[in-house]
Request: fold
Amino acid sequence: MMERRDAVVGPQRDNVCVIVVTYHPDEGFPERLKLMALLGDAILCVDNGSTEAEIAMVSNALSNVGGVLIRNNENLGVATALNRGLSHARKAGYVWALLFDQDTVPFMAMFDRLAEIFESHPMKKKIAVIGSNYLYDSGRPAAIPFSDREGGWREMRTVITAGSLVSLPLLEVIGPMRDSFFIDHVDHEFCLRSRSHGLKVLISASPLMLQPIGAAKFHGIFPGLSLKASNHSAIRRYYMIRNYLGLARHYLFKEPVFMLRNLRGQVVSLIAIVLFETEKGPKLMMALRGLRDGIRGRFGRYGPG
Reply:
């Protein structure tokens, strides 16, 4: 067991716990897990109701890297799974948690780069999250247009969960991930809540991982202009719309730029469904149900009614 340290202590490999949430992982997961395990002192997986065969694969992969499995017997959502992992890491005395999706492919420079960002920041005690810039799994850059020449990092309103280095002591100020969101916008809500406490959310300039976002495909509209179709499932469309409205209740006036940009993204995404995606009807229907439940303030796991 490690001795608890002050929040101002920067990330070092012996004070970082790697946390990955699994849900029906594919056969390539063990190889990705090996890469993730190199980036911290300990690694744990929180599984959300995978099959027995999948659990056996995850358990075997963890045994090869000395990791720990926390098993949920059903899908409790990303937020709850992350909270279980974060709680385990805090009780074990770790100072930082490095979060991953099961399909993330981290680059080996990730840890050193995130640690450098912490050391270069003038307000270390206020750093809640350091996120990792990324490439889509196709190799296409994420839409964050700046370079290392601009200082190596930038302050952000939000970053995605995967590749995020989270200060565990500051969770006492911020609080846990929002369980009632289940999935989608969990990372946005956590980052915006961190900022509401006067804390900092940063991101690396350089890409530090490959990260699939849905099954994204880019479709040319005009020369030099393309539209991304994320090809998320119908149930994800429900959570995206509903949880956006949940965010809007708290942050529309506190973070208007982010909320309006995200609204534009939601609209563009719906247009992409109509133009390019399959199962248009079910996806649009679930989006409407998300709109309904978001207006009603009905959150938690989706259930008809």
Residues 1-7 have pLDDT under 50 and may be disordered. The first strand starts at residue 16 and ends at 22. The first helix runs from residue 29 to 37. Residues 50 and 56 are 10 Å apart (CA to CA).
